[in-house]
Amino acid sequence: MLSGDDFEPRWTVVPKRGDPVVGLADNNDVLFEDRRRQRETGHRELYEPILALTHSGTLVTLADPYADPDDPRGKEPVRVIGSSDVAQQPCAGERELLADKVSGTALVLCTTDERTHVTAVTG
Q: Which is nearest to 31 in space by CA: 98, 102, 94, 79?
C-alpha cells in the first residue's frame, strides 16, 4: 500500500506467507469502531477497513487504525482482524476484487480467456 505524493511505503501486511495480495479494496471515507479493542485498551478505537484478496482466493480483513492528531500514542500498525476461505477455489486466470465495505459485500472474480467466474461474499 502506498500513500502520499512521494509514494512512500506506509504499511506492509502479508496475510499468509507465500500467498501474495492480488487485490485491495479500501475506503478512507468510512470509519468503524472496534468495540472489542476499546474494551481491552480503554480508548475509543476507530479504524478504516481494508479488504485484501490473496492469490489463493483468501479474503483478509485489515484494520488501519485512525490516528487522532492529538493522541500521544501516535499511529498504530495495520492489523489483520479476520480472514475467510469461502471464495477460495482454483483459478487458472487472474483474480480481482470488487467490494463495498459499508454493506459487507465482496465480489471475487477469476478471469480467463474464455470466461469470468464470480463469487459473491456477504458478511
A: 102
